[in-house]
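cron nightly-structures :: item 1 of 1
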Amino acid sequence: MKIGRVTISDRAAAGVYEDSSGPQIEECLREFLNAKAVLEFVIVPDEKDLISAAPRKFVDVLQCDLVVTTGGTGISARDVTPEATRAVLERELPGFGEMMRAQSFPKVRSALLSRATAGTRGRTLIVNLPGKPSAVRECLEILPPAIREGVAHLRGDDPHAAATCQK
């Protein structure tokens, strides 16, 4: 599986602090998906055009099977990841965001403020995650079955075969 990850953070992009949520994505995907994946990554500031350009490149040029973003899903003025993502999606999959919010809500009541979304572009699944490393792990714990099946459908593989290797 070829996976792209995008960290959206003004401060990480400027080198003010080290990206910790992006590496958390990689760790979780390897753990939860048993993914021996080729991973590509980029860090971009909270700028809509730059955010949209990253998944476009991962899908259209690098032909990733999965693109996962972290950061920019809240409600502050600079949080524009959902809008930037929707600009590149062909089909939205609202269940991902709904389930991530449901997973996080018992622990963090402000999870209701998350606007994370997901969808497809071509044969690629794109998923927005929150920017906090602990929230990345929390959300990725529940997504592997849907990610596996979604990627299998998009590739044209037998999704039932993908479902048999779920944890």
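cron nightly-structures :: done
Helices lie at 10-13, 21-33, 48-61, 81-86, 94-104, 133-140, 144-155, 159-163.
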